[in-house]
Amino acid sequence: MRRSIVAVATALVAVVGAAAPARAESWTVRDRAGDVPDTGYSDIQSVTVVHRAETLDVSVSFAAAGGIVNAFVDTDRTDRGPEFRIRLRWRGDDFVGEVFAVERWRTPIGPGNRVACAGLETHTGYRLPDLAGVTVPRACLRAHGVVPRELRVAVRSWLLEADGSPVDIDWAPSRRSFPAAWVASA
Ligand SMILES: [Ca+2]
Ligand SMILES: [Ca+2]
User: Which branch of life, at top level (predicted)?
Assistant: First the structure.
């Protein structure tokens, strides 16, 4: 119970309404620093989601950029859990981004689950805090031919042990949970 109280107290959620079409709607959650051990490479400090007219922008700040970041995207209220997973993997000095279709937080085994996403761009900020950012065209998040008008995002970050097992796992806002608020496109 104490842990959950701390989690609520440190979560700062702000949803900005978009009255004018030119304004994107956004959502930011702050996550406690130091809640995973060691290097800080997977220690999420904040997540900002901006749902623009043409793109979804997700920015995750860390003490230091690295590791693997999954941004789970919930686009369908009638289907429990996320529909997409945007994976960012640290390669050299930048992140490589890919999009996958998911079911109940997992990517089903098979060749057809990677979503072709022309125009996906990653961003890295070399400053404190470091940034793992991705811009995804909204068309990549289309299901049954429909681009979602609103969505919400949960982020998981971790590092890999030499044997491939995950360590130092951090979530925002919390494990396999989405924020209550949906973020509409401009
Ligand atoms: Ca954290
Ligand atoms: Ca869903």
Answer: Bacteria
Distance 35 CA to ligand 1 centre (A): 5
| Distance between CA atoms of residues 127 and 185, nearest Å | 29
Q: What is the mean pLDDT of the chain?
A: 85
Q: Where are the domains of the chain?
A: 2-184
Predicted pLDDT of residue 120: 98
**Is 8 a residue whose pLDDT tops 90?**
no
- What ligand has the least distance to the C-alpha of 43? 1
In whole angstroms, give the CA distance from residue 122 to residue 135.
6
Beta bridge partners of 160: 166
Cα-to-centroid distance, 154 and ligand 2 (Å) = 12
Q: From the CA of 102, which ligand is nearest?
A: 2
**What CATH number belongs to 2-184?**
2.60.40
CA of 70 to the centre of ligand 1 (A): 14
Does the structure show a pLDDT above 80 at 79?
A: yes
118 Cα–ligand 1 center, Å: 31
Q: What is the dihedral sign for C-alpha 135, 168, 182, 87?
A: positive
pLDDT at 23: 59
